[in-house]
Amino acid sequence: MTSPRIAVGIDVGGTFTDLAALHADGTVHTSKVLSVATDRAAGVLEALRVAALNGSQIAHIAHGTTVVTNLLLERAGARVVACATAGFTDLLELRRQERAALYDLAKHHPRPLVEQAQVIPVRERITPDGITLALTDEAIADVIAAVKAQQPDTVAITLLHAYGDPSHERALRDALVVALEQAGLVADVVCSHEALPEIREYERMATTVAEAYARPAVRRYLSGLSARLAQHDYPAPRVMTSAGGTLSAHDAASHAAALALSGPAGGVTGAAAIARALGVSRALTIDIGGTSADVGLVDDGEPLVERGGAVAGVPIALPRVLVEAVAAGGGSIAWLDDGGALRTGPMSAGASPGPAAYGRGGVRPTVTDAHVVLGTIAPGEWSGGVTISLEHARAAVDTIAAPLGVSLARAAEAIIATADATMARALRRVSVERGVDPRDVPLIAFGGGGPLHACGLAERLGMRQVIVPPHAGVLSAVGLALAPERRESLVSVMQRADAMSAASLATLLEQEACAMRTDGDDAVSLTVRWWLRARYEGQGYELDVAVQPGDTPGAVAERFVARHDQRAGFVLDRAVEFISARTTLSSAPWPVHFARPTRHGVLSAGVDDGRAMARVIEGPAVVRLPDATMRIAPGWTARALEIGGWMLEQQR
């Protein structure tokens, strides 16, 4: 009996649920269905049904989820009680003391996930020099009594300097687990030395609380999804993490905070695979879906992974694929503010009712409706069970055109230009802030709306090349399917480079790799990679530097200096220190062959001009792809790629 040889990726978005099936011969088959906002699992099962896949064919299902993002946005997570060192219980309130908006004194940061009354002081103290106030049985008993009184769903423990000495956290956790079980309270206990063993008390506490806040809902969701898949003889899903690898559903349930950017990470992973196939080492990426546009960066053929950042105003200082999301998707609603200025987003029509052109009850104008009015999205039947109505789109856009006293076409152009401006700003932030000149790299544009907006965005940024990948409309699902299974480990280091020997560095790296391996691992098929998080001594931020066991600390320090110069534009005459070490253990990526489709439907000025088999198309033209639409602007030329997809270039 042959083993199953189809890898499936399923990306659940705000409007569509996309599926990509990667077969053993490397070919790709895709499907797209409307998402079910009230039942995400229903969209997953419907996508599998439409794809006509049965469980015996499938090697694995990789899933991108927005559960954590939605929990944080809606503040719908678990009831959390936090335990913090006495005197440091106000860390979540104090934050970093930066303003929410520099020039708006009335704007405030979102409220912490845990209110001050739910933070319990712990009588203990560990400093960098050791224990100065021991954690006594009496202090533990006081904490247990306070926790029981609040009857939380989860408990988050963040004690001072636990990244260096976790003994107090472990003692308190063990006592709490026993006491809560005896009291009949089923509560997870999350420790900061496990969630984020790094310096910076605020970020460590915020990340630990986020893990505790999201874990119960993530566990319920993945358990329910796995059960419903099992009812139809499908395997339990792997889940994409923010860092670009996948975890089993069992492991993902205990790493909720690491799933905050699960869906967008799949898109950048797929874009990186396209870049490698074309020999492109660096590129900007944009994934324009129905609700948002996600901007990323491919560096050295891989998604750029960074630490930190906030999700829905909540700092989560874990490694994540660099993705900046802005509210500028196809379903983003256009509206006039009190001053009569045109805006798009952040409100979205979503999947229900969707853009007015869908004919599902939506009446407010969206970016999609503007494209329908201009003819860049053709009326009629589309994938995902959508029928586009020009009449409904025109009626919606007229609610903008009439008050402004302009034509429908002018209003539609303005809606698209407003959305483009929002996305262009995000592309500049992602690139320029990291020392990348957007004029020197191509733009990989995907998602249902990426190929439509690509030329306009490139022109705003001075970019002359755009790559529209094969399966552009469902590339995030492709990225999910081919992403490797990956485990990650983080350990605190806190040593200067000149005080560390090559032998001690090699031992540290090898010990972490050995600790991550399990009995069932096939060592031959696993790839181990290491990074040291480094900074100049006393500096307020760090950079990740790739390292191998044979490297000397001095060589790694030199690598950091060169990276710092490239990123920040200067070097300092200071010692380099290592903050932490990150280790990843990955399986091999799933093989994929991007085959060029045999036929492309081409419209120029709304007329089929017979160039459906064309290898080179000069703009202006609109190409209807199997799962998206590509617009070739005037002055641009599109060339069909051997791997499928298109290379668009602006003529000089």
Overall description:
One of its GO terms (molecular function) is 5-oxoprolinase (ATP-hydrolyzing) activity. It comes from Gemmatimonas groenlandica. InterPro entries: ATPase_NBD, Hydant_A_N, Hydantoinase_A, Oxoprolinase-like. Residues 204-485 form the Hydantoinase A/oxoprolinase domain. This is Hydantoinase/oxoprolinase family protein. The protein has 16 helices and 37 strands. The N and C termini lie far apart (57 Å). Helix 10 (367-374) packs across helix 11 (390-404) and helix 10 packs across helix 12 (408-432). Among the domains are: 80-151 and 153-186, no CATH class; 332-417, no CATH class; 486-586, Dna Ligase, domain 1, CATH 3.30.1490. The protein has 652 residues and is α+β, with helices and mostly antiparallel strands. The strands form ten sheets. Strands 13, 14, 15, 20, 25, 26, 33, 36 and 37 form a nine-stranded mixed beta sheet that branches. The chain has a six-stranded mixed beta sheet with strand order 3-2-1-4-11-12. The chain is globular.
